[in-house]
Design a protein that fits this description.
about 550 residues; alpha+beta; five-stranded mixed β-sheet; 21 helices; extended
C-alpha cells in the first residue's frame, strides 16, 4: 500500500497532503537543506567564538540552565556571596593575600622629615611613622662637554677627547629607553617620536630609526649565540612559524626555543631548505656525499639522475654561489630536483656536524619540520583539533563526537601522569590504549577517518614514552611567537633588512631574558652602559640547564 504524505507545518503554515505538489516537495527539500546548513554554520560560529575567547584569555560564556529565570523567583536572584566558593586555604582567604611590607625592599632616594611645632612642654618624641611615596622622574638630562681647544707652537690645533663612553649625541639611557619602548612595549616609531618630543628631547624621526636599527652588532652576536648554546644542554627544541611582511612582500618568521631561550628568524621563504640553514648555524655550506645521496633516494629522485650524481660526491660547497654553480654544471634545471639536491646537501652537512643527534623536535604537523634521522614529536593539542573541528549533524554524531574527545583528553591525562612517573607497565597500557582509542569504530565515517589519520602518526605522538622529558604540546612555541604576531599587527612589516634583523634580535633577547629571570630593562642597561653585571645569555642558558639537571 502506498503511504500518503502526512500534514507538515513549515514556519507556522500547515501544508495539507493534497497541497504537496512536486514544486512544494522540492521547496520543502530546499528548506530542510538550508536548515541543516544554518545549524552547521551556527555550530562552527560557536566553536570559533570559543576559540577566540580561549586565545584572548576571556572568561567562558555562562551556561544558562533551562527553566524559569531566577529574576522571576519571588525570593529574588541568588546573591553573589552565596554562590562564591570559599578559597581552598586553611584560613579561607585568597591565596597570596597575606599582609606583607610592600615597601620594605625599596631604595629611598630622599627622606623628608615632617615635624610638629608649638608643642606643649613635656612632649616626648617617639620617632617617625613612615609613609613612602613611589614616583618616577621623567625629564631630559642634557650634558655639554666643553672640549678645550689648543694651538701648539707649530700652529697645530688639538682638541680634548670625549670620555670613552660618549659615542653619540644621545646618551645611553635615551637609547635604552627607545629600544625598550619599541621592542618591549610595542610603541611605534611615530608614537615614540611624539613621546620624546613631549618629554623635551630634540630628536628627529630619522634619528629614532637610526637608534633602533644601527650600531647593534654586539646584540646580533649575542642573539646568534642562543641556539648553539641551547642545543648543547637541551633535550628538546620546540618550533613554529607565522607569516611576516617585509618590504611589502609576504615572508615567514620561524621560532625555535624551549624553556631556556627563544630565537626568531624572519626570511622570505617557508621551506625545509630555510629550516635546515637555520639549524646549521653558525656553520654554512653544502656537503654532497653518500648521506646526501641517501636523502635523494628516500625522496625518489630519478635513478638515471642519481647514477650520474654518484660519480661526483665528497665535495663541500661553502656558499650559495658555489652550490648554485655546481647545480648548473650538473645541468639540473627542474626546480623540484634543485630543491631536493639542496635539501640533501644541507641535511648531509647537518649530520656531519652532529649538532642534533640527541635532540627531539616538537612541532605541529608542518612538513618542513620533519627531517630524516631526527626525532620528531607531534603536538597533541594540534592533533585533537582535527577531531574538534568536525561538526556533528545529529544526536548520534554528537554523542560519538563528545565521547571521542573525552577519550582523547582522558588518554592525554594518562600521558601526563606517565611523564611524572614512567614505568614499563604504564608504557604497555598506553601503547595498547592508543590503538584501542584511534582504531575504534564510532558509527560516524568522518570521525573514523580522522581517528585513523591520527593513528598513522603513532610513533610521533608516543615519542614521549621513550623521552618523558619532552612536552606533550607545542604551546610554548605558540605563546612565544604570539608577541611577534602582536608586533606585526601594530607595526605591520619591516622596511629594511636592518630593521628585520633588529626585530628578530631584540624580540629573541627579550623573550630569552624573561625565561632566564633577567629583566629586559636591566639587560639593555647593562649592555649599553657596559656594566658587565649581567653574564652573557649563552652562559646563563648553560647555568640554568645545569641547575634544572640537579633538581
Amino acid at each position: 500500500m502506498e503511504r500518503k504524505p502526512c500534514t507538515q507545518t513549515v514556519c507556522g503554515v500547515e501544508i495539507l497532503p493534497e497541497q504537496r505538489t512536486p514544486l512544494v516537495e522540492a521547496l520543502l527539500g530546499v528548506i530542510d537543506q538550508l536548515r541543516a546548513t544554518v545549524q552547521q554554520q551556527q555550530m562552527r560560529i560557536d566553536q570559533l567564538e570559543e576559540e577566540i575567547r580561549r586565545l584572548k584569555g576571556l572568561p567562558d560564556q555562562p551556561k544558562r540552565k533551562p527553566g524559569p529565570s531566577p529574576l522571576n523567583d519571588p525570593s529574588g536572584p541568588p546573591s553573589a556571596s552565596a554562590e562564591k566558593k570559599k578559597p581552598n586555604t586553611p584560613d579561607g582567604k585568597r591565596p597570596g593575600s597575606a599582609k606583607r611590607s610592600k615597601t620594605r625592599d625599596l631604595i629611598i632616594h630622599r627622606d623628608v622629615p615632617l615635624l610638629l611645632g608649638d608643642l606643649p612642654d613635656g612632649t616626648r618624641f617617639l620617632g617617625y611613622q613612615d609613609f613612602t611615596v613611589q614616583d618616577l622622574k621623567v625629564e631630559p638630562y642634557n650634558t655639554c662637554y666643553r672640549r678645550g681647544r689648543y694651538q701648539l707652537l707649530d700652529g697645530t690645533i688639538v682638541t680634548a677627547l670625549l670620555p670613552e663612553h660618549v659615542t653619540s649625541h644621545f646618551g645611553p639611557t635615551l637609547r635604552q629607553y627607545a629600544l625598550y619602548q619599541h621592542f618591549h612595549n610595542h610603541v611605534t616609531q611615530p608614537l615614540l617620536h611624539e613621546e620624546l618630543l613631549e618629554f623635551g628631547v630634540d630628536i628627529s624621526a630619522g634619528q629614532i630609526n637610526r637608534l633602533l636599527t644601527e650600531g647593534h652588532e654586539a646584540f646580533y652576536q649575542e642573539k646568534d649565540s642562543l641556539l648553539p648554546a641551547a642545543r648543547e644542554v637541551s633535550a628538546y627544541l620546540q618550533t613554529d612559524d607565522t607569516s611576516a611582511r617585509h618590504q611589502g612582500k609576504a615572508g615567514h618568521t620561524l621560532h625555535i626555543g624551549n624553556d631556556l631561550f627563544a630565537s626568531f628568524f624572519t626570511t622570505n621563504t617557508k621551506s625545509r631548505v630555510n629550516f635546515l640553514k637555520i639549524l646549521l648555524s653558525p656553520h654554512q655550506g653544502y656537503l654532497f656525499n653518500d648521506d646526501a645521496l641517501f636523502y635523494l633516494e628516500c625522496f625518489d629522485l630519478p635513478q638515471k639522475l642519481l647514477a650520474r650524481l654518484r660519480t661526483d660526491t665528497g665535495w663541500l660547497y661553502e656558499d650559495d654561489e658555489s652550490w648554485e654553480a655546481r647545480l648548473d654544471a650538473w645541468q639540473i634545471t627542474a626546480a623540484e630536483h634543485r630543491r631536493l639536491l639542496t635539501e640533501g646537501a644541507l641535511w648531509a652537512n647537518l649530520l656531519a656536524h652532529d649538532l642534533y643527534s640527541d635532540l627531539v623536535f616538537v612541532s605541529d604537523d608542518a612538513a618542513q619540520f620533519k627531517l630524516l634521522a631526527f626525532l620528531h614529536a607531534l603536538c597533541w593539542v594540534h592533533m585533537e583539533r582535527h577531531v574538534a573541528q568536525l561538526i556533528p549533524l545529529n544526536a548520534d554524531q554528537r554523542a560519538a563526537h563528545e565521547a571521542a574527545r573525552d577519550a582523547i583528553w582522558d588518554y592525554y591525562q594518562r600521558l601526563k601522569a606517565y611523564r611524572e612517573s614512567p614505568t614499563p607497565a604504564r608504557r604497555a597500557r598506553l601503547e595498547t590504549g592508543f590503538d584501542r582509542l584511534f582504531l575504534k569504530e564510532t558509527g560516524w565515517p568522518e570521525l573514523n577517518e580522522v581517528l585513523r589519520k591520527i593513528h598513522s602518526k603513532k610513533s610521533e605522538l608516543l615519542l614521549v614514552l621513550d623521552h618523558p622529558e619532552i612536552p606533550l604540546h607545542n604551546n610554548l612555541s605558540e605563546n612565544d611567537i604570539r608577541q611577534y604576531v602582536k608586533k606585526r599587527k601594530i607595526s605591520a612589516g619591516t622596511r629594511s633588512d636592518a630593521g628585520r634583523r633588529c626585530r628578530d634580535t631584540f624580540l629573541s633577547l627579550k623573550t630569552t631574558c624573561r625565561k632566564l629571570g633577567v629583566t629586559f630593562w636591566r639587560y639593555l642597561q647593562d649592555r649599553i652602559q657596559g656594566l658587565h653585571d649581567v653574564p652573557p645569555l649563552a652562559d646563563l642558558i648553560r647555568r640554568k640547564a645545569a641547575e634544572l639537571a640537579n633538581t
